[in-house]
Amino acid sequence: MIEEIPLGSPGIRDFARFPWSLYRGDPLWTPPLTGDLLDNRLLGLIGLLKPHHPYHQHAEVIQFLAKRGRQPVGRISAAVNHRFNDYYKTRIGSLVFSK
Which pTM does this prediction carry? Predict the structure, then answer.
């Protein structure tokens, strides 16, 4: 099953935490700071996966979480950065995935 995870959705936490289960035990993996993804009020960080992050003023982003039953098995983030496209006179987007 593929689940769409919009910004601000409660499922965004599962989306952000998926790499911890995927790369568990990999000595070469360096986890990202969760505050960079999900906010950290104590440190004053605005998370990239939150709708109030400044990036989202000029970009469209949607996340998808692939599940086998209730277990996440992959994720995809798709984005179109309109400021980038306007500056470079192009029409491209980007995909980032983990499986």
Answer: 0.85
